[in-house]
Amino acid sequence: MDGVIAFPAVETAQPADLPPPASRVPGDEATAHPTRGTPPETPSDMPTQSLWRFRRRDRRKFVDPRRSRSSWIRRIGILGSAFLLAAVAVFEMEQVLIVGGLTPIEIAVLVLFALNFGWIALAFTSAIAGYGVVMARRYRQKRTPPGPLGGRTAMLMPTYNEDPSRVFAAVEAMAVGLDELHQGPAFDWFILSDTTDPDVALAEEAALLALRGRLGDRARIYYRRRRKNVARKSGNVADFCTRWGAAYDHMLVLDADSLIAPETIVELARRMEEDPDAGLIQTIPALVNGTTIVARLQQFAGRVYGPVVGAGLAFWTGSEGNYWGHNAIIRTRAFMEAAGLPHLPGKPPFGGHILSHDFVEAALLRRAGWTVRIAEDLAGSYEESPPSLIDLAVRDRRWCQGNLQHTLVLPARGLHWVSRIHLLTGIGSYLASPLWLMLILAGLALSLQAHFIRPEYFTEEFQLFPTWPVIDAERALRLFGLTMVILFGPKLLGLISFLRTRDDRRKVGGFRTIASFVFEIIVSALIAPIMMLVHTGAILSILLGRDSGWKPQRRDDGGVPIKSLIVRHRWHFLIGVALLFAAWLDSLVLVAWMSPAILGLLLVVPVSGMTGSNTIGRFIRRIGLLRTPEEVDPPAVAIAAAAARPVYEQAVAEAPDLVAIARDENLRAVHLALTDAVPPRPRGKIDPLEAQAIAKIEEAGTIEEAVSFMTPAERAMVMATPTLLRRLSSIPA
């Protein structure tokens, strides 16, 4: 049929072509047939939730109200203390500025100071409570888990163009650990791929076969790659729920860089079984495997300050905790009934599907009458961090857009007021940067006004003295000291808590920890103004209507060429020069006061390059700075994952390409068995990618030529569509 494009017929559930599995326990199909992709589906509905319609009488009642209701005393203590602290500071600032009357610029400074101080005051009072919780925990006895688990949990590993060797080595380490605890039968593993790169997709299949070969009967491993990434990660998990979720009591959602100790996985499942009101339990992941200064800086801060901050948050949020998108266990039925995400009105960046889905899903679960808790007492949950400031900026651009979308979610009906605080906190974490920048600029303007602008003696209202900005220097110095205490209080409490924990102190060393604490503060002070401008730029970009897109995150290499660093940071440097010049116009004293912000911007290129360098990061590690207990004594699950990774690197290196699969009948059969079912296509609705691929296949003289004609997106479509792959393989050699 030369010159005629015949669109492929609809196909469904290709894995059904395989022989039926042997009689085993439910869900054991992957073990019986190593090439099978997914288990039989259990279709179920996941209704989209309305943000504007909700009846309180439809909210489920707690089975155990005494256990599930949060403490008002805790909330009054934490929030009330933060409010009083902020009120005192704002009053003091007013007294600093009111000498001689408030000018418009002084009013702006006062308002901006109130917004910035209120933010850190809540973190301070929460950290005080967290310190008490962490210290009290040392005297609690650890419980001994009883017998096997009664429910079934799906372990979900969503992945998007990630290195398969990392993903599958982590799955092996966790699955083997569960088997050694004799809890393996309670868990099924799902690698939910949204990968769009055809080469990465084929590498995933090779790694999957290697994983199944190594594990044998020790775990049930399933794999599904979506043809289209509808709604990104939230859509990926929702697709699992509607197709297989009904077969599982719980699902534990991971990320591509997640690792959880098997004992922690079992404990999470046990807590879900013991608490009939629990909808979601979120762990607090510790950062591991950092090599660059940026990664190790976050790793150290999370390990030393994180327990106090996390315990404080869990202390006052209680049953209205939050969800951070991974390393959390969820009651599947509750999630499917209550957390179907709506599309926001309008176009991206504010409209469309919700990017930061986790906060909203937690709020919807709580609205429906399920508890959302933060398991701050559970260790053994790990993840990794971006290796450079540029990678941080790329990630934060996406997170910033997702959090600003929450402005449309805030007024939703029926949300618990603490859930709204979580949403506001996410928004505020990014708005804090432009607020800080405006406070710096307002303070600079105040100084320049006092230095250059002549006082106005003859105003409309008679007065003996001119309106001239005047401050109370003694009060200002006292207020500065208070602000520093509030700002660094959580870090100091975290440091004290860490040093008082004998095992941690013994592994890292008290002197090294203190030296790392000082180093972290210095480097963080240099990075802070850079990230202030990064976040401010992200907000401006979003307000201009630019969507973030969806880019895979770099995990290991943080190195960036010097030319790229100059291009990426040129505006940060120029703003630093402008601030230095403006401060110098007033006095060298003002330059000294503004030096923490100015210095980081003037040194932005070397700071960004050095903090993202693996070589410098390894040197910092050798001299013992930013060391954590997990670095000295790595957790068993991390050791197992690192030991297994070379096996998967080898499997990925030997993965067949599309040409080999199209030529070899056995390779093609294995690939088709792992290919996801193609959904029915409405008549007349033609997919342009499929049509393009068919045209190129028809025009090619050989398989190699056809593949060379195709774009990566077209190759990925051919791999995901059995009729197209068979048509490609039918080209004569």
From TrEMBL:
<protein>
    <recommendedName>
        <fullName>Glucans biosynthesis glucosyltransferase H</fullName>
        <ecNumber>2.4.1.-</ecNumber>
    </recommendedName>
</protein>
<comment type="similarity">
    <text>Belongs to the glycosyltransferase 2 family. OpgH subfamily.</text>
</comment>
<dbReference type="GO" id="GO:0016758">
    <property type="term" value="F:hexosyltransferase activity"/>
</dbReference>
<dbReference type="GO" id="GO:0009250">
    <property type="term" value="P:glucan biosynthetic process"/>
</dbReference>
<feature type="transmembrane region" description="Helical">
    <location>
        <begin position="476"/>
        <end position="496"/>
    </location>
</feature>
<dbReference type="Pfam" id="PF13632">
    <property type="entry name" value="Glyco_trans_2_3"/>
</dbReference>
<feature type="transmembrane region" description="Helical">
    <location>
        <begin position="107"/>
        <end position="134"/>
    </location>
</feature>
<keyword id="KW-0328">Glycosyltransferase</keyword>
<keyword id="KW-0472">Membrane</keyword>
<comment type="pathway">
    <text>Glycan metabolism; osmoregulated periplasmic glucan (OPG) biosynthesis.</text>
</comment>
<dbReference type="GO" id="GO:0005886">
    <property type="term" value="C:plasma membrane"/>
</dbReference>
<keyword id="KW-1003">Cell membrane</keyword>
<keyword id="KW-0812">Transmembrane</keyword>
<dbReference type="InterPro" id="IPR001173">
    <property type="entry name" value="Glyco_trans_2-like"/>
</dbReference>
<dbReference type="InterPro" id="IPR050321">
    <property type="entry name" value="Glycosyltr_2/OpgH_subfam"/>
</dbReference>
<feature type="transmembrane region" description="Helical">
    <location>
        <begin position="76"/>
        <end position="101"/>
    </location>
</feature>
<feature type="domain" description="Glycosyltransferase 2-like">
    <location>
        <begin position="252"/>
        <end position="444"/>
    </location>
</feature>
<keyword id="KW-0997">Cell inner membrane</keyword>
<feature type="transmembrane region" description="Helical">
    <location>
        <begin position="517"/>
        <end position="544"/>
    </location>
</feature>
<feature type="region of interest" description="Disordered">
    <location>
        <begin position="1"/>
        <end position="48"/>
    </location>
</feature>
<dbReference type="InterPro" id="IPR029044">
    <property type="entry name" value="Nucleotide-diphossugar_trans"/>
</dbReference>
<dbReference type="InterPro" id="IPR023725">
    <property type="entry name" value="Glucans_biosynth_gluTrFase_H"/>
</dbReference>
<keyword id="KW-1133">Transmembrane helix</keyword>
<keyword id="KW-0808">Transferase</keyword>
<feature type="transmembrane region" description="Helical">
    <location>
        <begin position="571"/>
        <end position="604"/>
    </location>
</feature>
<feature type="transmembrane region" description="Helical">
    <location>
        <begin position="423"/>
        <end position="448"/>
    </location>
</feature>
<comment type="function">
    <text>Involved in the biosynthesis of osmoregulated periplasmic glucans (OPGs).</text>
</comment>
